[in-house]
Design a protein that fits this description.
- The structure is a single chain.
- The chain has 281 residues and is mainly α.
- α2 runs parallel beside α17, α3 runs parallel beside α8 and α10 packs antiparallel against α11.
- It has 17 helices and no strands.
- The model has no long low-confidence stretch (mean pLDDT 95).
């Protein structure tokens, strides 16, 4: 079992919030499309397994690309590749295996879903390099992490429409908010070593910016529910979720990494509230 621990840390099995944040846009989109109840468990399971496989593969790819940066950052210097616990070659083999699992799961859907899924690969491949060339890697993460909003709807309907596009836009704004909070954990090291992030760029203006991002996300969710003809229950879920986001902005202490991590993780509950409203509606 001890031999497995570095590999479990490599795929972030000890930090499952990443799997959830990748999965929620998929599940929200499925609920939005209103599939037959009998079909719901299958779709949710496929997206769950897909999120685990692709999040794990993405973490490995990110750690391979960032291994020289990770050594310099206090929070990441003990990651398995950066610390030398796992070789790059072994990590690459595991990444390929997980990617193949993700492909097999993707092929269980219709051809439109397969095409849209494959279109996400350039976003995934480019993400680790964004912190080198732009102050907004969090925006790129939003574009990547919320791709499932396009897949879930298409898995049910067979084609895209306005509701999943608005859901995707809302998800991008949401990710901009929560990942800026997350990036504040590393802002001192990032500034010291020249790593770019929205947290470093925004600095003292972060709360105002995050409030704007979260308001945009809520507005996008309201538009999504309206376009989909959902009932008042969906709006109730979004409203309670908005209060949770407001709590994050008012409570987070950007100078306390533990506070930033707690607020970041709490986005799991925000998404669960919105999902519950969509599903019941």
């Amino acid at each position: 079992m001890n031999l497995m621990l570095p590999y479990l840390r490599l795929i972030r099995a000890d930090a499952p919030i990443g799997f959830w944040l990748l999965l929620w846009p998929c599940w929200l989109s499925v609920a939005l499309a209103k599939p037959p109840i009998a079909e719901m468990p299958r779709l949710m399971l496929l997206f769950l397994l897909g999120a685990i496989a692709m999040r794990s593969s993405g973490c490995i790819f990110n750690d391979i690309i960032d291994r020289k940066y990770d050594v310099l950052i206090t929070r990441t210097k003990h990651r398995p590749i950066a610390s030398g616990e796992i070789s790059t070659s072994r990590a690459t083999l595991l990444m390929i295996g997980l990617s193949l699992v993700g492909l097999i799961l993707l092929l269980q859907f219709n051809t439109t879903v397969v095409f849209i899924g494959i279109c996400s690969l350039p976003l995934i491949a480019a993400y680790p390099f964004m912190k080198r060339i732009t102050w907004w890697p969090q925006l790129w993460l939003g574009l990547t992490f919320n791709w499932g909003a396009l897949l879930g709807w298409t898995a049910v309907e067979g084609s895209l429409d306005w509701p999943p596009l608005f859901l995707y836009a809302a998800g991008v704004a949401w990710t901009l908010g929560y990942d800026t909070i997350y990036a504040h954990q590393d802002k001192v090291d990032d500034a010291l070593f020249g790593v770019k992030s929205s947290a470093v760029l925004l600095g003292r203006n972060s709360k105002t910016a995050i409030a704007f991002f979260y308001c945009s996300a809520v507005a996008g969710l309201v538009a999504t529910a309206t376009l989909s003809g959902l009932t008042w229950v969906a709006y109730a879920g979004v409203t309670v979720g908005a209060l949770q986001l407001a709590w994050q902005v008012c409570t987070v202490d950007f100078d306390d990494p533990e506070s930033c991590l707690t607020m970041f993780k709490s986005n799991h509950f925000f998404a669960a509230l919105v999902f519950t409203g969509f599903l019941v509606s």
